[in-house]
Amino acid sequence: MPFSIRNREKRPLLERIDWWLIIIVIAFLAISVSIISSAMTGGQYSTNFAIRQVFYYILGFGIALFIMLLSPKFLLKWTYVFYFIGNILLLGLLVLPDSSFTPVINGAKSWYVFFGLLSIQPSEFMKIILMLTLSKVVYDHNRFTYYKSMQTDLMLLLKIAFVSSLPMLLILLQNDLGTTLVLLAIILGIVIVSGVTWRILAPFLITMFVIGSSIILTIIYKPALIEKTLGIQTYQLGRINSWLNPAQYSDGEGFHLMESMKAIGSGGLFGKGFKGGEVYIPENHTDFIFSVIGEEFGFIGAILILILFLALFTHLFKLAQYAEHPFSTVFLIGFISMIVFHVFQNIGMTIQLVPITGIPLPFISYGGSALWAVMCGIGVALSIFYHSSNYDNIKIQPLHKQIKFKK
To answer: What is the Cα–Cα distance from 185 to 13, expressed in whole angstroms?
Structure first.
């Protein structure tokens, strides 16, 4: 992926824009609108969501370009204000009574609805806000830590845990496990590049892996033990059970997964062609958009989507390597972590690799708040590129050496 490193401030305005990143996002726009349009042929919708997605993208580009004009130093300065506003919006959903302004949708009260037309989901934007906040926490901690030790690393982890705990709790109280998992992925990515020694990270990650694996194996082989020790009723494990054995639950919670695998499997190598989908999947324009891709464009189409995501990851990672401010580098790693987790979880759940959660496929699934939040992250990336001024003097180094914090 071409990546110019000449001095930005001395170049014309248009040459300071990261056009490669914009081209990648435009490619996602074309794919998203096309696939959503194809999903409409199933006859289950009266609304043309493809047209709406175009509107969401236009507004998303406006948001991204506006953020691009804000320097990373400005974002750093106002990060805690964003953090405060984000948590107030999350808290409002819990304390305000049910109404047309804060409706309960699919059993969850996670949206503000304005004039019955525009819905905003604060938890989506909190992903980007948490990235900014944790990037500032890491930057400030390392900038004022003159003698690095186990104690200072533990203190940094405590700061990260403290800042992350409030939004995660508020989102969990909304019964939104999927977004909580995304926040954990963001935290993990940022912690890995935060400078914390692996003498702390390795035992922690191994412990989490062992605990997670033990819980999954216990659910599979000893569900009664889960009920006895944690007080969770066996029927409450329906989503896990339907993931492990979807055929047994095909009339209930396993229906989506069975139909998704049927659609993707029937696509074969080249698919059935644009608008050639035949398998019925409810709400296939949102979380199960990849099933439409697999059925209509087959294995080849699915691989091309993954290649486009790989191009995005590569470009963002290269930008993180060249970013002149540690705050920017840490943010970009958090942003990459979020997108990677979204892609892995969304695609994985359509092929029975992981349990089903309400996590959309970034840039492609239909939705306003999810797309706008991702475009906010794109806007920050554009800002990092746009406001860079000393790229001629940057020596290419491994990422862990690039994140040097000036005292």
So the answer is: 35
